[in-house]
Amino acid sequence: xxxxxxxxxxxxxxxxxxxxxxxxxxxxxxxxxxxxxxxxxxxxxxxxxxxxxxxxxxxxxxxxxxxxxxxxxxxxxxxxxxxxxxxxxxxxxxxxxxxxxxxxxxxxxxxxxxxxxxxxxxxxxxxxxxx
Length: 131
Prior knowledge:
This protein is α+β, with helices and mostly antiparallel strands. The chain contains three helices and five strands. The model is unreliable at 116-127 (pLDDT under 50).
């Protein structure tokens, strides 16, 4: 009986140790160059940037703090002219930290706010021309 419990415990620990993080995927109905601009804005505005690669449209960043623990995430964009799939990989998602969902929410906010921000800049520039 002791051997069975010990073997079960070792198998459980081994399974946890070798189980890597699973990527979260989200498809956006925009081209990847548009989503890339939103992703860069979301990362630069909310996280500590480790890398952003314009050629591969991928990057990595950290979130968290001394108190909550610093967590790193990586993301990549793949897609066609009318759809772009964003994959985010990180070790923590769940009850305490849902970093992947937070990134997707911030990316969505950056994509929806970007046209408004651009329109406001153009309106401001137009107002200056009228003066």
